[in-house]
């Protein structure tokens, strides 16, 4: 049974979501402030976290930053009462995987969750069990797609699910110029309302993690006016 943490300070919302998620056979934990969310997410394993932006004690942005800093890469779907692009961009920049603007229907939220599940299941079906023989090795990077692992010079790196999917997509298409539209369609598919900056934000996160100098990237090159190209690290 998949386990979900629902975090919202409005009991009416948590009650509604818990009822509908349990009808879909999810195991649901509920809390109502950011401090408790951090405690639960740090001490339990969840498949998803549904996280309100405006929370008592610690807001949703800071909860997300804290969890990502602790290398907790559980997918986070952020809820916001504000229909403002800046909040959505900030959420994605700090590590949220998706967002919904209130008011929303439980059916829409469940559809978003199922879309992520389908994408991850398809990825697992297509990728063989990872071994040193079928790992993707480019420069000093070694990726194990099925095991959700990437190392650089033998040191383990940590990514959110979207960052990891994007990196694998790049590495499997080395030296090919890939448009932003292709990346949006292939990585995000139909499970979120796309923002024009979404791809650029996630590429920036990848560069911070895999490049020696993110301002002078050797792996992920920008192709102006089109997209990106992943290439062998330059000496």
Concise account of the structure shown:
This protein is 41% helix and 21% strand.
What can you tell me about this protein's structure?
There is one protein chain. The chain is of the alpha/beta class. It folds into two domains: 3-123, Rossmann fold, CATH 3.40.50.2300; 158-230, Orthogonal Bundle (Arc Repressor Mutant, subunit A), CATH 1.10.10. Helices cover 41% and strands 21% of the residues. The protein has a five-stranded parallel sheet with strand order 2-1-3-4-5, with helices on both faces. A four-stranded antiparallel sheet has the order 6-7-8-9, covered by helices on one side. The chain has a three-stranded antiparallel sheet with strand order 10-12-11. A hairpin with a 4-residue loop joins β7 (141-144) and β8. α2 (34-43) packs parallel to α3 (60-69). The protein starts with a strand and ends in a 5-residue tail after the last strand.
Distance between the termini: 48 Å
The overall pLDDT average reads 83
CATH H-level superfamily of the largest domain: Response regulator
Shape label:
elongated
Overall number of strands: 12
The helix count comes to: 8
Reported by name, the CATH topology of the largest domain is Rossmann fold
The value of Rg in angstroms is: 18 Å
Write a concise keyword list for the protein shown above.
235 residues; Rossmann fold; Arc Repressor Mutant, subunit A; 2 domains; 5-stranded parallel sheet; 4-stranded antiparallel sheet; 8 helices; 12 strands
Tell me the layout of helices and strands:
Blueprint: E1 3-7, H1 11-23, E2 27-31, H2 34-43, E3 48-52, H3 60-69, E4 76-80, H4 85-93, E5 98-101, H5 106-126, E6 136-138, E7 141-144, E8 149-152, E9 155-157, H6 161-171, E10 177-179, H7 180-188, H8 198-210, E11 220-223, E12 227-230
Helix pairs in contact: 2-3, 6-8
